[in-house]
Backbone:
């Protein structure tokens, strides 16, 4: 049963709460068996999932969606296989629950420990590729949390097929299939109701556009982890390696411009600009990147065959472009670059390219963002790339979790105290 | 300057935000020097503080406050000395900022670390003893956070004297005195404004009654850590040691009944009740504890000279008594006790008294609370008692921090990634 009405939504919450209690006590073996079953089911139910996917893609085409959107929706046997691999890699990670985080014995003999426990019920609202449905389900399962999924309307049939398959696989492993709940309705009023279900939802995570994130941050009655909106910078310092700067800035902008960790603004030290800017401009002319340049960058770049070069506007500096567009600014000092990042960055991902060790260290110390980088592409802010196995979201909050959220970030802890009758005096 | 108007309140936020940036970069030495200075000032400005305290106590007496409230307000040279000791003990703790929490090198050579960083600006609304003003200031200072304090009206002069002294001490150490901000006005509309200052306050912590906690949880635009409301149980199991049960239950109820970690409800297994209940009743008759007993407990206790014994009402089970009052229930099984705790507990502190190792382990596993205890008084749920040095509050949230919040719970982290030009393919 997938919720399509408000009453069903509330029932979904209660059912998830019940499953969460069972999940908290499940053995690692049972949870891993459920994950193996999901991986197996993704490989043995290819026809069923692709058929549902075909329905979604046909509907998207009828609604006049572009090739990019339909491409993001597309599942193939290869993509299903790669989703199965991801599930197996979550299964192979250590169980994040029941770990002793600290342990000490006090002078009075009390033994004090902190143990990791699941958060409970996690709700995720997302507008993403269908693989996210399985990614989130497997991370929540492994961390002993029940999950309520609310995916995008355009992937409804695909997501439903994936959830059905996952629930059967979980049940076959002897775990509660209510661990994964699915909100089927595209009705937006349901989201409003969901945001008030603080008795049954412990944490809500919006994964989607800025409007969704803002709505959840403002309306949610339960804790929310927001993020995913990245105004990200690459700063090419005066002592930067020229070739490295070209590779990293190009990769940060073009490797996948539609995601939150893509570079939005390129900041270049005036000492590096004359050698660097014309060359990146040439590459971007070829790749179709529009440069929104400040006056100095405009004059240094000069005319480049095929380059889309337009004067930057103030609003560009605080825009997450999600497109082949980059703001470009020339600064006269390191501090000017840091000030720009502090003023316009969204605390997501910030990178410096430099050969100066002190400049690098100071950047890592001073810049306040979920991930700060030296000599690497901003595109590495990703749970998989940073060794978490996978991620539920990238948090730009400072509370609880910051940056990519993997298994550990889906847990809380409790203190245990064991004595022999100690009392307080 | 202490804020007394809305405009001053906003200025306080901006000033705290500026101080937070400086604090994040301060050396451990400077922070510790500031703490030593505060401890010194508490010992060398006794007259000034006691004079202010006298003003508050006289006002409280004029307002008809009882001896208990005035006693809580009272500062003495000894209490100031003990506050100074507490500050020195915070200074002696390791710096929670700048610690490398994780570190790994990925296959592509990227070096990935997580480093602890301050949260930023923390606001605390409290209605407590004046020592809390210094406790919170010193914990925030050591963890590199700026703090905005809003204490109770009844301690206004005392708190102002303590904050003035702390700010001078901080400034003398070469740290920004704006690190500690004080809201002077008793105007309640200021609190409403404060709860919306999400641009300048990163975390708000209410320490006070249930009404304040509820208001903050509902209205705060920034993350809030709530807690401090404890409906706490002691369960005397069938295999409990009789003398230990008496000592622990008595201590949990009477050692300080006015605080959140005092026991509210005593649950007794029917096999232990006939030997235990009459004896605890006799002690409570002497100590003036009112027993609100269920029918079976009533009949087992029988008439005890001087005992206030009344039938329990359903609402008692979910009441934090904050008084010499205890609900008493007899159960026929361990599971009945666990069900009662799950139904009525507030997730604060829960204890079992038992000699049965399996029963103890199951209690620690199954009970969902910030601190779960075996054979120890609930009164040990306290930052100092559990080895944190001191505490800002006791969280009953699961996000970010649970249980007593010490220095580590006042930090966030950032990821740092260092490469040699790696790009994503």
Residues:
């Amino acid at each position: 049963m997938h919720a399509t009405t408000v009453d069903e939504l509330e029932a979904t919450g209660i059912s998830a709460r019940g499953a969460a209690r069972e999940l908290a006590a499940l053995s690692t073996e049972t949870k891993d068996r459920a994950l193996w079953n999901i991986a197996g089911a993704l490989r043995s139910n290819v026809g069923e999932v692709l058929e549902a996917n075909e329905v979604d893609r046909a509907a998207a085409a009828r609604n006049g969606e572009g090739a990019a959107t339909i491409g993001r929706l597309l599942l193939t046997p290869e993509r299903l296989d790669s989703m199965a691999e991801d599930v197996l890699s979550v299964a192979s990670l250590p169980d994040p629950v029941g770990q002793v985080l600290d342990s000490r014995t006090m002078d009075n003999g009390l033994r004090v420990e902190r143990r990791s426990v699941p958060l409970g019920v996690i709700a995720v609202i997302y507008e993403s590729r269908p693989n996210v449905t399985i990614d989130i389900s497997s991370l929540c399962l492994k961390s002993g949390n029940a999950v309520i999924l609310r995916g995008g309307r355009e992937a409804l049939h695909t997501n439903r097929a994936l959830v059905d398959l996952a629930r059967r696989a979980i049940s076959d492993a002897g775990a509660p299939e209510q661990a994964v709940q699915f909100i089927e309705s595209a009705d937006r009023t349901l989201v409003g109701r969901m945001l008030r279900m603080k008795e049954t939802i412990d944490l809500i995570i919006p994964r989607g556009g800025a409007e969704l994130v803002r709505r959840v941050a403002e309306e949610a009655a339960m804790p929310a982890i927001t993020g995913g909106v990245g105004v990200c910078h690459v700063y090419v310092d005066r002592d930067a390696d020229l070739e490295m700067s070209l590779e990293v800035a190009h990769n940060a902008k073009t490797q996948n411009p539609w995601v939150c960790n893509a570079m939005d603004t390129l900041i270049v030290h005036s000492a590096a600009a004359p050698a660097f800017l014309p060359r990146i401009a040439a590459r971007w002319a070829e790749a179709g990147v529009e440069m929104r340049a400040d006056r100095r960058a405009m004059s240094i770049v000069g005319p480049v065959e095929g380059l889309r070069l337009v004067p930057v506007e103030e609003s560009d500096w605080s825009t997450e472009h999600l497109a082949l567009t980059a703001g470009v600014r020339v600064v006269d000092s390191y501090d000017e670059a840091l000030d720009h990042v502090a003023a316009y960055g969204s605390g997501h991902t910030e990178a410096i390219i430099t050969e100066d060790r002190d400049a690098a260290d100071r950047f890592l110390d001073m810049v306040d963002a979920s991930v700060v980088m030296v000599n690497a592409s901003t595109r590495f802010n990703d749970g998989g790339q940073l060794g978490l196995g996978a991620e539920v979201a990238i948090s730009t909050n400072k509370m609880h979790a910051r940056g990519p959220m993997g298994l550990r970030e889906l847990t809380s802890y409790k203190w245990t105290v064991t004595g022999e009758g100690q009392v307080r005096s």
In short: The mean pLDDT of chain B is 95.
